[in-house]
Amino acid sequence: MPSLLERDAHIDRLDHLLAECLGRAGRVALVDGPLGSGKSELLRVFAARAAERGVLVVGAGCSAQERDLPFGIADRIARSPGWPAGHAERLAALAAPAVLADPAESAGGTALNGTALNGTGAAGDPAGPPSPALLRACRDLTTALLAASADTPVLLCVEDIGHADEASLHFLRHLVRHLPQSRVLLVLTDGSTPWPARRRLHAELLRHPHAHRLALAPLSRAGALRLVTEGLGEEDARHRGPGLVDVAGGNPLLLHALVEEHLDRADEPEPRYGPALLSCLHRAGPGVLRVVQAQAVLGEEAPAEDVARLLGERESADAVARIRATLTAAGLLDGEGRLRTAAARAAVLEDLAPHERTELRLRAAQLAHETGSPAAEVARHLVEAGRAPAPWAVAALTEAAEHALLDHRHRTAVACLRLAHKEAAEENDRAVLRHRLAQAEWQLNPSAAARHLVPLTAAVRAGHLGLAEALVLVRYLLWHGRGEEALAVLDLLRARTGPAGPASPAETGALRDVETWLAYTHPVLARGRRVPALPADLRHAVAPDVDPQLRAAAALAGALTRGRAAEAVDHAQQVLRDAHLHGRTAWAEEAALLALRVLLQAGRADTAAVWSQRLLDTAVRREVPTATALYSAAHAEAALRLGEPTTAAEHSRAALTHLSPTAWGIAVGLPLGTLIIAESRTGEHRSAAKHLTHAVGEAMFQSLYGLHYLFARGEHYLATRHGHAALADFLSCGELLRTWGLDGAGVVPWRTQAADAWLRLDNRDRAWRLIHEQLSRADADLPHNRGPALRLLAAAGPAGRRGPLLTEAVDLTEASGDRYEQVRVLTDLSRAHQGAGNKRRARLLLRQALHVANMCALKPLAQELLSVSADLGESGPAADEAREPGGVGALTESERRVASLAVLGYTNREIAGRLYVTASTVEQHLTRVYRKLGVRRRKDLPADLWANLRKTG
Fold it and tell me: Is the pLDDT of residue 729 over 90?
């Protein structure tokens, strides 16, 4: 049994009144206080103490549901057990006719139901004088009750008199007047809600000299903490007590509920808090609960006037304010008049019947609309109601959705657009709303948006959607591999924008941009696969009324198609810088991905990695799953180009987590291909093979995504020594690119990899021809293309030419930043030096290659290097290099840090960035290092300098 904290004075006062009663001085005590302040518990404890003293305890409680039953209190008193023999029968006999009396006759011709907001169940406001029959019944009952207490003192407890019927109140008034000289202690409880009728009732009861008032207040903070400590123990109370007290607001009933919930559960103790709160509100009467429900619907900051208007009451703002003040005093609301927790708000709203909740929400929306509230506020109520029955409601939902999209709140936008589309009357409006809904759902899950593709296609045919919306639909259809449907829509648009069509210049330009984009990404669908001339200034090549992101995507795709990525680098970075400004545009991610592709094709993988990480961080912060998945895949590819397969695999897996493979559509080839290559390079061949079993449709191989997947499969076959299968895939890549007219675009280095496969199949002539084809291409001078080609050319050519070719390849791989290729070149160069008899140099290169391979988790290459190391007689990571005087000890700390990073293959610019110095300072340090160590260039530096990497941080 919970203790009665801070109630000792009240118990003492009641004990004193009981003592006077036992001396034949009847008394009446009115115990009032806020909801849940412990009035019932106080009465229960005191009744137990009185019973121990031989007092007959008789209890009766009032209920709002029984307010229309006359003399309900008298009936419950008469039926209470314990009355002396004979008196019980007399009381029951007197109460029965009174209960059966007509309410109108008993209450002076009026029946008070007390449901109005200003009254809210506050009895005690009779419309006229009591009838003679009522007075006689009150007199007879009072006489019988006092007679029954002549021999046995009686404690008569009546709870919640605010809910008593009018006839019972007349009886209590009559009894109070006749209590002196009796042995009856009448204890009444009531709430402290300051309704006028209730105040009059209290005043009438307390005007007698033998009447006393005991006011209960919420627990003080110290008292509330004591209660929590008694319930939970000191240890738990120290950690959870303050939070529970803050939630309960000093209300004993709520605090007990929270403590009991915490004892049952270890997590948040709010599920029991809601029912306890509702219990208080229901006991206060329907009007109080309605006010709290209306406030929960409107929002915690809603003024009393709006709450009253929502409830449909007239001139009741003062009553709403009084109810709020009372609930605040009870601790049910905080100091600002708001419900304290989300659980409280949910419980209050869930107590409404579904139809009542809908009606209240619709009225709230109407009120918000009439008062000029923001569209988001109107839409919030409409979405909760699930209905938008008026034209203004659809407009509000549409406007709110647009604002939500601007703020990257896609789920809110989806909810608004879904309801707006459902309620829109005009077919054109429904088509446009469905298109906007598909766009919003696309950002959350492309699979969810797929259900709109068929009706949107029909809307395009019917002319309900414009060309801009139709072009976005083409992109969505292609994503889901529905090429035939996309082609049908394209043919329809091509006919409309032809010489005889009604299209505007802007629409013609938009379709031309999509054709350019298709020529690179889905070449089989592009009309004639002709790419317009590249604008002289990409940044200003935007026609009026054309989506700038579509125009940017077209310009970048055109540059890639022509193999002129290097010329578009500046424009690509401008597109990436402006990406955050175009969140609502359906082509924004496509333009950003093509911009990253330009950087990769131009050999700027390090820059692409930086930008893709920025875009990924923004997408994660905005909680946009589709963009997050796309930029994760892009960052994975950039990491793979930099020879970081572990990072590439991590981000590829993340991309396939943010969107399921099904949601990726045919674009799954991008993250899947990167993951297969990354796992093949780290030696996770079984996992890579498992990914190859993923079902991919034929439609994927009609796009660039299929080309990436096919190339990745060839890489896996090459890594697992399936040379013929690898060769077939690489040659298939070349055939596709030639068929599409993209062989000059340098999409994938299929010639280099096919040459590698030919070499492993011991066909040097075929390999040599492919390598020379690669080196004759327009983009052959880019480091990331030329380096691997020279490595293979050295392998295919005579041994005497290998040294110079591989030496140049080392510089090129260092410039490209590709650690994977760097390890392969260093390995081949080490073998070349070994063949030439220069074992010391071979060991240096071998150690450097082994370190980079281990650093990048290139397990197959590392194992290969260990076997080569055994051939060279290596016995440890430093070998005999550390035993020879090389002047390493003469280096300063700064020089040692610079040299160690140079040995690992970092460029001067990268070293400067890591050490926070200028590139010029790096060059000066390296010059001094070369002089002290007696070497001429960085590839001659001792390989064991990498041991200083930890010191560089």
Answer: yes
